UniProtKB/TrEMBL annotation:
Residues covered by the FAD-binding PCMH-type domain: 34-213
Highest taxon above the source species: Bacteria
Entry-linked InterPro entries: FAD-bd_PCMH, FAD-bd_PCMH-like_sf, FAD-bd_PCMH_sub1, FAD-bd_PCMH_sub2, MurB, MurB_C, MurB_C_sf, Oxid_FAD_bind_N
Keyword Flavoprotein found: yes
Record keywords: Cell cycle, Cell division, Cell shape, Cell wall biogenesis/degradation, Cytoplasm, FAD, Flavoprotein, NADP, Oxidoreductase, Peptidoglycan synthesis
This protein's encoding gene: murB
GO function term, MF aspect, one: FAD binding
Main location: cytoplasm
UniProt EC number: 1.3.1.98
Protein name: UDP-N-acetylenolpyruvoylglucosamine reductase
Localization: Cytoplasm
GO biological process, one term: regulation of cell shape
Any GO CC annotation of this UniProt entry: cytosol
Amino acid sequence: MEKNEVYLDLLKMVASEEQVKIDEKLSTYTFTRTGGKADLFVLPKTYEEVGQIVAYAGTHHLPLTILGKGSNLIVRDGGIRGIVVNCELLNEIRCEGKTIIAQSGASIIDVSRFALAQHLTGLEFACGIPGSVGGALFMNAGAYGGETADVLYSAVVVDKLGNVLNLDKNALQMGYRHSAISQNGYLALEGTFTLSEGDPQKIKAEMDRLTELRELKQPLEFPSCGSVFKRPPGHFAGKLIQDSGLQGTRIGGVEVSTKHAGFMVNVDNGTASDYIQLIRHVQKTVKKKFNVDLETEVRIIGEEPES
């Protein structure tokens, strides 16, 4: 189908023209500030719109990509073909007793702050994770000894046919940086978190402590894709990279952080290709020196640029 034809079809499914964009620059939406263009970029406002868009893409055999806050993501410089769905307009957070229900476009940091305001404990670990609720559900995001699965009760998702499903924690199959959402190609719409009553002063103190740790250890002053590699069994990725003498190594405008070896930062107008080349170089070097395979935690999606 022609791009303009799909654009017109998508306009019929949403409430306003501002929700559908052609050739949208994805570098605007990624934490690395890199990435090419999306053929068609859609910002749904309701679950019904999401379901219709997903079903439409399936019926017409169009590629469909879900883009969260772009915090643990590299979009290749050639961009993304087909339809890209961004749920940032689905960002409601509400409380029912000791339960918080958050839509997928809400920031997980905002959810942790909302929990504090409700005097609820359990989400302190998420106070510095720069992603969306949808992203946290997708990859079972975690930090400082906590992870999404610890407090998750259920999630609402859309399957590949556009059906809205309510899945309990067992059905979500949460593992280390893994879930049934990522495995089955679902699109997360909301998560329900079961928390406990807590002392707001103690909750805030813990969040302040974790924020200070993050600011001390992580290179927040530069654009980055967050933690690049998963933790290898029996090792720490950052320590392996550091011991390989790779800190400060640069390809193009992207550098292995001198502050934390597990991060790669965009220090000088780097590209997605710079990131990918540096990732491959680090993997090859660590494998040669320590015989350890580093698996990427960051997702790499999209097309290579045309030569």
